[in-house]
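Summary for the funding panel

The consortium committed to producing paired sequence-structure records for every protein in the target list. Below we show the first two records in order, beginning with the earlier of the two.
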Amino acid sequence: NGLTVWVLPREDGPPMIHYVLVVRGGLAVDPVFQPGLSTLLASLLKEGTASRSALKIAQDLQSYGGDMSASAGVDGITISASALASNATRLIVLLSEVALQPAYSPREVELGKLNAMQALAAAQSDPDYLARRAMGQLVFGTHPYGHVLPTQGSLASVTPEMLHAEHDRRFRPDQALLVVTGRIAPDQAFRLADSVFADWHADGDPLSPTSAVPDQPVPRREFVERERSVQSAIRIGRVGIAADSPDYFPLQLANAILG
């Protein structure tokens, strides 16, 4: 079905199993009028499935000696799960349910929206957040990377139907990567992946690739006033390099050294 699976067995360390499932399509592919939709799309994945409530998911994870998280990045959505290696089968079954059968129940969606809007209201009082929003728009202009942060209006208008539609559009095996690592043999890992993901099929066309970012923006300055601030937040930036550049990791290391 096109799903890419990487298995990285590890004999040393604690007897744990780790799964990471990544699908293409993050904040940069959110509808223009719906910035930040991916944040809810990801955060609500583990708040109930077709067969388990949010409480049941939390209880099961606790009994497996593990945990699970889901987050949206600019270019994709990531679900990470870990547990004792003895529960590898149970965990991957739960992972597949969370990834492929999210309930997006009206109650959980409303609660998720409320929490997200409260978090946004708090963030908007932070000069660092305001500077981040302004910098994204200055550096990337009209490119999708410059408009990935939510607004109160975009969060408030999200519906369960909207989330289901976006989930169907993005969660495709031919646009996904499953990484399995920990105390597990490669043959077992591939069998487990096949047992829960073999019937996962894609419908329609895949997402179009995000367009390239302009190499050099026109120099600009912007002042964002925040009344009664006692400190300033200053940002200087420009477009960097693509993540698939051979210089990406050397630059990461150089950045860490410069501190």
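The next record, for a separate protein in the list, is shown here:
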Amino acid sequence: KEMELMHLKSQVNPHFFFNTLNNLYGLVEQDTDKARQLILRLSDMMRYSIYEGQKDRVTLAEEITYLENYMDLHRMRYHKAIDTRLDTDVEDRSVKIMPLLFIIMVENAFKHGVEKLRAEAFVHIRLKATRKTIDFEIENNFDEEEMEDKEGIGLKNLKRRLELVYPNRYDLEISSVKT
């Protein structure tokens, strides 16, 4: 189980980092200052993924900071307005959780929503936590024609990690609603 969990953790972020590096390549000549800021933010995120992501547990505060950095980086890299929100109501930020717990869902919201939409893209996140429970909810808009019916590797990875770390102690609900 530990070997499988280590393998699953190692798959979490490479795709995002490659995409960001490709975006940086083009940005270096266009806007050097913005490219430098993105590189620093990406460096912080990579450091967290590599070092903290390999731990068994991290604090909820660390995970929230990681999500904030991720969202900031995305706001910086797109050339369009994005309505992003991360609302937290956390009783104790020192509560320990599995690292990189929420990032797959956040990445999917950006990948399938923000990246595909030309205008009015949004990602709204609500995180409420007590010492015993964590409720994480993410909502985004997307182009229905761009959506695939199959479940991606990221969600399969998340489900398996939850099964290994929190057996019979979690609920994961994913829904899509036409508006």
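Regarding this second record: The longest strand covers residues 82-90. Strands lie at 58-59, 82-90, 96-97, 121-129, 134-140.
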